Amino acid sequence: MWRSFGFVLIVLPLAIILIALAVANRAPVDLVLDPFAGRFVVQIPLFLLIFGSLGLGLLIGGFATWISQGKWRKTARSRRREAYDLRRQADRLERELEAREADPHQPRLTAE
């Protein structure tokens, strides 16, 4: 229920605004890729330029965030490996304890 409410509250108005922006900016604009000589000119609708810039910004921001969180991913991998090793060690010790308890001829250790 909250998910659909959040969709209606956030995504729907954002979509309406983006559609209105695209309709209002349909006219082609010159995108000059060589500002000094002006030889590389591409005509594209302004809304494509705006949406493309937003998309590129999202990709660059996501990549920068992924790079900056590398140390946390490394720590998580290390801790996962350590937990796996400790789990294996605990299982091995449990098996050894069960084997000692099953064999009545093994000397028992007592606490002092």
From TrEMBL:
Transmembrane intervals: 42-67
Annotated keywords: Cell membrane, Coiled coil, Membrane, Transmembrane, Transmembrane helix
GO CC terms, sorted: plasma membrane
Ranges in coiled-coil conformation: 76-103
Cross-referenced InterPro entries: LapA_dom
Domain Lipopolysaccharide assembly protein A: from-to ranges: 42-97
Protein's recorded name: Lipopolysaccharide assembly protein A domain-containing protein
